[in-house]
């Protein structure tokens, strides 16, 4: 199912100090003439969330977190809860990013628990899935991603807004992207897995593509059937580049 309203999300990852908010300000100033049926969100590091809320106040750009803990509070040194993100102004949260699945060993079960924690406080989860290069070369991309979708989504999502982001691990930060046919194939598999897990209600949730989305490839990727938006890393750090991707939507 092709989504009419694209969701374009910038993930700043572990980049950004207060001085970099100039990029968010530049984006705000330039985004006025972008057509209204495109949703835009920025996900800064947790330390900048509240300050970015002040920068984005009153505008059309939404604010998200990059992760949250599955517990509502407690002895979890260094972690940020879903409620803390809401308190700092976030309305969305990226969960299960491959950098967290890889570097922090997050399992589908943990991601699913984080999804439950997020929706319990009204956050819109963006649940990330994606295969490694080894898995793709073994012909397992669709199967791996489908299993991640079924394992990472949570029951409560059938009645809540959410998105899934397909990000091939080998495409993140590398400048490599799958072919448009490969993107279409995996997005169709993701949609089927979403419906198996949550029923027909899952048809309304957008499936984003992420992995080396740049100004020069955004239009063709966003034109693929089932691509409901983009999760953008490196190119979201510069307002000029991110704006070009937004315009492509
Ligand atoms: O969350 C964003 C993705 O990991 C993509 O990152 P990238 O656009 O730098 O490849």
Proportion of beta-strand residues: 15-25%
Q: Number of folding domains? A: 1
Q: Which CATH first-tier class would you pick?
A: Alpha Beta
Distance between the termini: 17 Å
Number of helices: 10
How would you state the average pLDDT, rounded?
95
The CATH architecture designation is Alpha-Beta Barrel
- Name of the CATH homologous superfamily: Aldolase class I
Shape: globular
H and E order: EHEHEHEHHEHHEHEHEH
* DSSP E strands, number: 8
> What is the helix content?
25-40%
Radius of gyration (CA) equals 17 Å
Tell me which ligands are bound.
Answer: glyceraldehyde-3-phosphate
Helix-strand category = alpha/beta
- Spatial order of the strands forming the largest sheet: 1-2-3-4-5-6-7-8
Query: Could you please say which CATH topology applies here?
Result: TIM Barrel
Main beta sheet strand tally, sense and closure: 8 strands, parallel, barrel
- Which stretches are low in confidence, meaning pLDDT under 50 for 5 or more residues running? none
């Amino acid at each position: 199912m092709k989504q009419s309203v694209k969701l374009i999300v910038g993930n700043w990852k572990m980049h950004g100090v207060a001085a970099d908010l100039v990029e968010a300000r530049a984006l705000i100033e330039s985004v006025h003439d972008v057509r209204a049926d495109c949703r835009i969100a920025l996900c800064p590091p947790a330390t900048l969330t509240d300050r970015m809320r002040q920068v984005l106040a009153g505008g059309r750009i939404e604010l998200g977190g990059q992760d949250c803990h599955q517990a509502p509070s407690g002895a979890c040194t260094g972690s940020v809860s879903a409620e803390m993100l809401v308190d700092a102004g976030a309305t969305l949260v990226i969960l299960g990013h491959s950098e967290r699945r890889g570097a922090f060993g997050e399992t589908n079960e943990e991601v699913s628990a984080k999804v439950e924690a997020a929706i319990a406080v009204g956050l819109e989860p963006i649940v990330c899935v994606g295969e490694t290069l080894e898995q793709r070369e073994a012909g397992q991309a669709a199967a791996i991603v489908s299993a991640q979708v079924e394992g990472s989504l949570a029951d409560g999502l059938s009645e809540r807004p959410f998105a899934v982001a397909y990000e091939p691990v080998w495409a993140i930060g590398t400048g490599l992207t799958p072919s448009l046919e490969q993107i279409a194939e995996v997005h169709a598999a993701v949609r089927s897995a979403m419906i198996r897990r949550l029923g027909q209600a899952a048809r309304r949730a957008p499936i984003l593509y992420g992995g080396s989305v740049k100004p020069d490839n955004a239009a063709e990727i966003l034109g693929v059937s089932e691509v409901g938006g983009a999760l953008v890393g490196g190119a979201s750090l510069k307002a000029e580049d991110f704006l070009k991707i937004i315009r492509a939507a």
